[in-house]
Amino acid sequence: MARSRLPLIAGNWKMNGLRADALALARGVADGVRLAGWKDREVLICPPATLLIAVAEAVAGSGVLCGGQNCHVGASGAHTGEISAEMLSDSGASHVIVGHSERRADCGETDAIVRAKAEAAWRAGLLPIVCIGETLAEREAGRTLGVLEAQLKGSVPTGATSAKLVVAYEPVWAIGTGKTPTVAEVAAAHAHIREVLTGLASDAGALRVLYGGSVKGSNAGELLSADNVDGALVGGASLKADEFLAIAKAA
Ligand code: 13P
């Protein structure tokens, strides 16, 4: 891992957590991060939007960052049930995940929508984490690198820089399955992502590219050691403070 890029360990809680358990989890992560006193990595948690304010308050002063899991493209208006990037920011978020494969699949989010959401994040002063990743069928058809390239070109807005964007590579078939690519496969995907980013960001060499998909304490060290991997986007394992902290420790 290039030390010029500050590793980011991000927890995506997805649609999990009611107030009591979520606050206990947030406090557990905050206590661990406070104790570790890391200056050489960032730790982010992305709770459901309903818990963002309470979680942000619970981790205040610990160094743990908070993010949203999605945002609307607009700032406000007649969009029942939607949440804007401005609202996330107002609730204590500094980051927002956009284009997660679950939203691309469940909500029909296209590259163009993801791109608009990343721009909405910028408008609100949030750092977007743009997710990309191939399906199993695409991998088996030998299309992985082409799919990643197309998603990047469609999803990354003009004007991207390392300070304004994080990319997360999450193979769809590795999410929640316990399956992961080999370290060599991760490195190949990340090398290609960085090459494509060279045409999309003015300082692509400094832009962080996270790996996500069945990351846990026991495999984090290996996966995070792959070239061009600058941290992890963690789902299931981010729901246990000890497990998530073990991943952060491995970074
Ligand atoms: P898992 O870590 O549960 O595989 O989920 C990864 C993910 O989708 C994070 O955004």
Summarize the structure in words.
- The protein has 251 residues and is of the alpha/beta class.
- It has a single domain, classed as Aldolase class I (TIM Barrel, Alpha-Beta Barrel).
- Helix content is 41%, strand content 15%.
- Strands 1-2-3-4-5-6-7-8 form an eight-stranded parallel beta barrel, surrounded by six helices.
- Helix 1 runs parallel beside helix 2.
- The longest helix is centred in the first third of the chain and has 18 residues.
- It is globular and about 45 Å long.
- The model has no long low-confidence stretch (mean pLDDT 97).
- Bound molecules: 1,3-dihydroxyacetonephosphate.
- The site of 1,3-dihydroxyacetonephosphate (13P) has 14 residues, from strand 8.
The CATH superfamily is identified as Aldolase class I
At CATH's second level, what is the architecture? Alpha-Beta Barrel
By CATH, the topology is TIM Barrel
- For this structure, what is the CATH class? Alpha Beta
In this entry the ligands are: 1,3-dihydroxyacetonephosphate
Distance N terminus to C terminus? 9 Å
The count of strands amounts to 8
- Using the alpha-carbon principal axes, give the shape: globular
**Number of continuous helical runs:** 10
Indicate how many domains the architecture comprises: 1
Class of secondary structure makeup: alpha/beta
Helix-strand string: EHEHEHEHHEHHEHEHEH
Break the fold down into its secondary structure elements and pairings.
Elements: E1 8-12, H1 19-36, E2 42-46, H2 52-59, E3 65-68, H3 85-90, E4 95-98, H4 101-106, H5 111-123, E5 127-132, H6 136-140, H7 144-155, E6 166-169, H8 183-198, E7 208-212, H9 217-224, E8 231-234, H10 241-250
Parallel strand pairs: 1-2, 1-8, 2-3, 3-4, 4-5, 5-6, 6-7, 7-8
Helix pairs in contact: 1-2, 1-10, 5-7, 7-8, 9-10
1,3-dihydroxyacetonephosphate (13P) binds near residues 170, 215, 234 and 237.
